[in-house]
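Quick question about two entries, pasted in order.
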Amino acid sequence: MKWFVVLVFVLGCGRLASQEERGKSLATFAGGCFWCMEPPFEKLPGVHSVKSGYTGGKDPDPDYKQVSSGQSTHREAVQIQYDPAKISYEELLRVFWQQIDPTDGGGQFVDRGRQYTTAIYFHTAEQKAAASKSLGELSRSGRFSRPIVTEILPAVRFYPAEDYHQDYYKKSPDNYYRYRNGSGRDAFLKKHWGSKTTWKEFLRPADKELRSRLNPLQFRVTRQDGTEPPFRNEYWNQKEPGIYVDIVSGEPLFSSRDKYDSGTGWPSFRRPLLAQLIKEIPDNSQGMKRVEVRSKLADSHLGHVFDDGPPPEGLRYCINSAAMRFIPRSQMAEEGYGEFLSAL
């Protein structure tokens, strides 16, 4: 999730056209802390990528320190690359409204200042019309007692944020959860939209949804702690460079650089790609003492870790293919995992 495009509204029209020719369009929204704006969009069918960044200002090359402190004229924002044949801009607008307090002209929740205020940055005349219509409908709905102050503005240059901010909720889930839980955002959204959805549910969907997305083996492995047969699974003999991500959430798990042939018939790795995205839990089932491996965000059962691996770590992460999706090196950047290319 993770996980991408820079646009200049006037000078970048050719770039936008080329994206749309390939079935991709852009949507740009400012909704306060960009950490919180990525998860709702990333899981939507038809969304190719969600990028955190800065936009709306005039000063060039902003960075997080400048923007977050108010020393820049930019807002925190997310830019979404999507396929309009699979998801409409109107649907993206609906999701946007359900993530923010559109009546707050001084920031969003605990984050104060113009850099955290809300805005819709339109890339086309059609997007402008759709945004205006959507805002008008929301204003007339009576859902909020105060006027809506979210601005609708032409898109200007979008500066991608630093790598460590991209998919922050996956890279630093504990820090993200503490921030989100204390920000007041979820309490506000539940009050005004009646939604029980939390940020974790974007990564850990209900079983009903997963049964429709996963095949029976993938569901049995990830949700019922199953084990696939050795030598008859997708990745046991996979040698292509790339990374392996959670089949449920897309969180990055393992790199081909750390994969080796253990002779067991299951994919085996020396170490995880990001240790903070792996949980290791004592497992005394099946009459054995083992250590189970689960993903941190989706809580997917992945496999087990053993101490009979190669040096220097001496570990063997024995993982079910059915719990993972392989992303080849040639597709990593396009799918939002470009920052891990150096791990191959």
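Here is the second entry:
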Amino acid sequence: MDKTISSVAEAVADIPDDADVMIGGFGGSGAPIELIHALIDRFRATGSPKNLTVINNNAGNGFIGIAAMIKAGMVKKMVCSFPRSSNAEAFNEKFLAGEIELDLVPQGTLAERIRAAGAGIPAFYTPTSFGTELAEGKPTEEFDGKMYVRERWLKADFALIKGEKGDVVGNMTYRMAARNFNPLMAMAAEKTIAQVAELVETRSIDPQQVVTPGIFVDAIVQVSEPEQEEVLVRTGVVY
């Protein structure tokens, strides 16, 4: 089944208000900037989607990507590990004003909660955060003399991810470190929307090179020359 979409605007057109949205990337590596900016364009034109819960490793940098979403007022809650990154002015401003919620999750726990959702595992135990504020209200249990915290899987309505090469049925590869959260999020969302630098026909990718099988991808769009977050931040771009 051909899953190609003609534009990034069309790819994100069905994301509604109040949706939970996973966004791939580790900082700028693997961040689907064009899909994010298409979502911002739609919000500016229509006022929707709003009240989003965004799940990412951080809360954005500068005034592009996720930071631009926050600045625009689209995000009601961030679920992340590093809200204070190199230039988190957009998040800081909203958080200190009480205009955005924060669910702080240790990075390994965040990755495992997402992976667990994709694997159909509703909960797991980890020693991370035991005895801290992050564990308050969560069940704990002792195993072999060590205390563990029970964490739930983390699902989303949509995942926006970025790959290097993809075929028309959604099989994907990633470029180096851009692999990070993207494959996990592709498996943990009800609908996964992917942008790839190169879109090819079926059977064009060696099956042994496929990282994300097409069964986990619902829509795929080609962005031949994707922007890099760090470059945009460094040059002072404001989206």
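Reply: Helices lie at 8-11, 33-46, 65-72, 89-96, 107-119, 182-188, 229-234. The longest strand covers residues 156-167. Hope that helps.
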